[in-house]
Fold:
Amino acid sequence: MDSNETPARRRRGAALESALLDAAWDELDEHGYAALTMEAVATRAGTSRPVLARRWATRSDLALAAIRHHFAAEPIQVSDHGSLRKDTLDLLRQMNTRRRGLVTEVLLRFSGIVSESDGGIAGFRERLIGDQPTQLRLILERADARGEIDLARLSPVVADLPLTLLRHEMLMRPTPADDETLQSFVDDVFLPLARATRSNGGGEQ
Structure:
């Protein structure tokens, strides 16, 4: 443990990393990304800059880790409702209310992170999420197992379509989408394309 930490505050492993990320989030929340410094986070966490530097090489790496840590505290979970339609709507409804804050904060308050990411918003999303399995992917796998779709024939564009439509709605409108809009995303756009992967076109009504 770094010698600059007092015995009463010595932390190790996951406890230390959680404390560092909490401190980084608090700095972001209070001052925004433009004012974020490794030194300020270290001071708030009661440690030293080298402790941070050993884990995150740049302040954008630290900020992204802090955002992931903060929103991972309340992950979105979609129960198996027995149909692709119900599962997808459940996911969109949760994201519509719980994740809108993330989009707003990132674009308005933490916009510097986006500008420092290769590829703009898409590059930022890739750094934030990476190759982690998403709730939508799990929903599609369940639908494939039920025979509602053929996941092997589902194009990446169609597979991500519900989230693409919701992201666009979040970016273009200041308020959450109404439920009629979410149902239209699913019923009028996504399901016809997803179900077309099955020759029988089956699915729950």
